[in-house]
Write a structure and sequence with these properties.
The chain is elongated and about 65 Å long. The chain has a 5-stranded mixed beta sheet with strand order 1-3-2-4-5, sandwiched between helices. By secondary structure, the chain is α/β, with parallel strands linked by helices. The chain has 13 helices and 5 strands.
Length: 278
C-alpha cells in the first residue's frame, strides 16, 4: 500500500488522523466490506492519493470494526468521506461519486503557503528541533500574523527552549480558535517558568522538600529537559495530587502540549498521569 494511504482504527485515530492533520490534510474514507459502492469509490480515492504525492493522506476506517469513531463523527451511511485539518472536519461528502467529482472535491485541499510552513514546522517539533521550528513558525506568521496553528507552534518552540517571557504575550492574547484550548494549557507552564526566572514562585503552605522537587522540575523544563521535568512533576503529584492548588498538574499538561500529541512519549506520560490521578 502507498505511504500516502493508511488503515486506521479507534486505537490510533487520534495519532494517525487528528494529530497528523496538523501537518497535512487527512481524508478519511469510512467504509465496510459489505458496502458495494465502497468498492467503486475506494480505488478512486487511493489513485488520487497516489497522484497527490503527499499533498494529503488517505486514511481508511472500517465502520464495522470501529463503530465508536463512526458514531462520534455522525456517519449515518457509507461510503462517507471526511477531510480533517488541524484536528477538525473541514469538508465532507457521502455516497458514491465519480472520479471527476472526487477530483473536483479534493482540488480545494491544496494548503496555503502558511499552512505548508506550519506543517513543516510541526514536523520539526515532532523531532524536537525547536530552534528551526521557531524560525519556520515566524516565517508563517510574517505572511499571516493571526494564524492560530503557527502561534501555538511558536509558543511551544519557545517554551521548549526556556523562552517563557517571549511565549507569554502570545498565549495571553491568543485568538479565539480551535487552537485556543492548547494555548490555555500552555499558559500555566509559561507563567511558572517566567516566575521561576524572576524568583517570584509562591511557596506559601507547601512542604519544603516537595517544593524543592517542584522548582527543580521547572528548572529542567526551562533547560529543555522536558521528560526529566515531567518525571519530577510526577513525583510531586504522587505525594500531593493538588500541589499548589493543582498547579503542578496544569504545568504537566502544558509540558505534554509542548511535546505535542504526535509524540508517542506524550501518550505514555498522559496514561501515567491518568493512572496517578484516577
Amino acid at each position: 500500500m502507498s505511504t500516502n494511504v493508511v488503515h486506521v482504527s479507534e486505537t490510533d485515530f487520534q495519532f494517525e488522523v487528528l494529530a497528523h492533520s496538523s501537518q497535512r490534510p487527512v481524508v478519511v474514507d469510512f467504509w465496510a466490506e459489505w458496502c458495494v459502492p465502497c468498492r467503486t469509490l475506494d480505488p478512486i480515492l487511493e489513485k488520487l492519493a497516489d497522484e497527490a504525492t503527499g499533498a494529503f493522506r488517505l486514511a481508511k476506517l472500517d465502520v464495522d470494526a470501529n463503530p465508536k469513531i463512526a458514531e462520534d463523527y455522525g456517519v449515518r451511511g457509507i461510503p462517507s468521506v471526511k477531510v480533517f485539518r488541524n484536528g477538525q472536519v473541514v469538508a465532507e461528502f457521502s455516497g458514491l461519486r465519480s472520479e471527476a467529482q472526487v477530483r473536483e472535491f479534493l482540488k480545494d485541499l491544496a494548503p496555503s503557503s502558511s499552512d505548508l510552513a506550519v506543517g513543516r514546522a510541526n514536523s520539526l517539533l515532532a523531532k524536537q528541533n525547536w530552534p528551526e521550528g521557531e524560525t519556520l513558525f515566524r516565517k508563517a506568521l510574517k505572511a499571516n500574523p493571526d494564524h492560530p496553528a503557527a502561534l501555538v507552534g511558536l509558543a511551544r518552540s519557545l517554551l521548549a527552549q526556556g523562552l517563557a517571557e517571549a511565549a507569554l504575550p502570545i498565549l495571553r492574547e491568543f485568538p479565539v480558535s480551535k487552537e485556543y484550548a492548547a494555548a490555555e494549557q500552555l499558559l500555566p507552564l509559561a507563567q511558572a517558568m517566567a516566575d521561576l526566572d524572576l524568583g517570584a514562585l509562591d511557596r506559601s503552605g507547601d512542604d519544603e522538600a516537595l517544593f524543592a522537587v517542584y522548582t527543580h522540575a521547572l528548572r529542567l523544563a526551562s533547560g529543555g529537559q522536558i521528560l526529566a521535568a515531567m518525571d519530577g512533576l510526577l513525583e510531586v503529584l504522587k505525594a500531593d495530587k493538588k500541589f499548589q492548588g493543582g498547579e503542578a498538574h496544569r504545568i504537566f499538561l502544558g509540558l505534554l502540549q509542548v511535546l505535542g500529541e504526535e509524540d508517542s512519549v506524550t501518550r505514555e506520560y498522559r496514561n501515567e498521569l491518568a493512572r496517578l490521578l484516577f
